[in-house]
UniProtKB/TrEMBL annotation:
Annotated catalytic residues: 119 (pros-phosphohistidine intermediate)
Alphabetical list of InterPro entries matching this protein: NDK-like_dom, NDK-like_dom_sf, Nucleoside_diP_kinase, Nucleoside_diP_kinase_AS
Protein name according to UniProt: Nucleoside diphosphate kinase
Enzyme class: transferase
Cofactor(s) it depends on: Mg(2+)
Organism: Brachybacterium nesterenkovii
Quaternary organization: Homotetramer.
UniProt GO MF annotations: ATP binding; metal ion binding; nucleoside diphosphate kinase activity
This protein's UniProt keywords: ATP-binding, Cytoplasm, Kinase, Magnesium, Metal-binding, Nucleotide metabolism, Nucleotide-binding, Phosphoprotein, Transferase
Compartment(s): Cytoplasm
UniProt catalytic activity: a 2'-deoxyribonucleoside 5'-diphosphate + ATP = a 2'-deoxyribonucleoside 5'-triphosphate + ADP; a ribonucleoside 5'-diphosphate + ATP = a ribonucleoside 5'-triphosphate + ADP
């Protein structure tokens, strides 16, 4: 079995979509093994988004992620890394497939960065790295 790091981003919290998103994760059969709501620190976001440093959307991305509380989640299940990315849908909410979290619930806002409700680790290596950032006690 496998674990992944999911973030319900500030737009998901602000739009009161936590329950709807967690419902989809649980309905799929994944187990939520850790969950915490807090405002991300600059250090957590710098570590989490290190791969995007230097890209044009990096500064607005970090600003959006730090602006208000998010919910960090560790979910567990068979092939959950790939499975949650599939539940989430593709990055751009405008074109994400209907049936996915981003496709059903996301839309484009007049904002400097794509607000797409959720993050999910994209590989076992990313999952281990990201779980250690958000839940060091699980390391
Ligand atoms: P995450 O699950 O959040 O990592 O999404 P992802 O893997 O689908 O996207 P990626 O890791 O490539 O980018 C991280 C975040 O940066 C995205 O979720 C968006 O919020 C934002 N982002 C990515 N690409 C773009 C882009 O081309 N333009 C803008 N404005 N924002 C972007
Ligand atoms: Mg990513």
């Amino acid at each position: 079995t496998e674990r992944t790091l999911i973030l319900l981003k500030p737009d998901a919290v602000e739009r009161a979509l936590r329950g709807e998103i967690l419902r989809r994760i649980e309905a799929k059969g994944y187990t939520i093994v850790a969950l915490a709501q807090r405002t991300a620190t600059a250090e957590e976001l710098a570590a989490h988004y290190a791969e995007h440093e230097g890209k044009p959307f990096y500064a607005p991305l970090v600003e959006y992620m730090a602006a208000s509380p998010l919910v960090a989640v560790v979910a567990e299940g068979e092939r959950v890394i790939e499975g949650f990315r599939s539940l989430a849908g593709t990055t751009d909410p405008t074109t994400a497939a209907p049936g996915t979290i981003r496709g059903d619930l996301g839309r484009q806002w007049d904002a400097p960065v794509l607000q797409n409700l959720v993050h999910g680790s994209d590989s076992p290596e990313s999952a281990a790295r990201e779980i250690a950032i958000w839940f060091p006690e699980l390391g």
